[in-house]
# Entry
Amino acid sequence: MKINFDFLKDDSLLKEQYDSAARLAKLYEIDDYRDVVINARLLIETVVKAIFKWENLNRYYPLHNGDHRNLRSDSNFLRENLNYPLSIFNLIDEVRRMGNEAVHDIHYHFTKEQAWHVLCAVNDILVFLINSYEDKHLHYLRPDMMMEALENKTGRFRPVKNKAQTANEENVMQAKQLLANKKKKRGLVSRIKKIFKY
# Structure
């Protein structure tokens, strides 16, 4: 089976990732499985950074006990602040772990099946994001993702902002409305004063 990332070519959110994704497919075709896994990790890291931008989340979130900002801490922060399905975060973690192994353990031999597993994970993460943010109906490659998407047609398989974040946005909207009402009242009061001044 061949993998094809052409659905990224004209995508409004992820079109910049097309070249990187297409490179993964080419590396797989020439049996360079270690580089497939390494480049998949880099691609997912770039996509996670894009999610921060789309969701307007702070990239400089507080860290605990001297931790460093990396793909692991970024995905954990997203896990706490976005209501994506757990399966998506599990795929991100799989790609991250295998990518780390590919970089740090040069003696480990990656098989064709492992590289295919990573390619499918990357594909399904990208498909989830496009389906969720752009309301498209692209198909997943992994059977578990296909089943989860079919079982959750009601909308749970979509990104939903955290309740605290939604409440904060509601407070901001209420404050803006209150400020706008005060400005309207001030305008009315100043006009009445002008009328009685003459």
In short: The chain is about 65% helix and 0% strand. The mean pLDDT is 83.
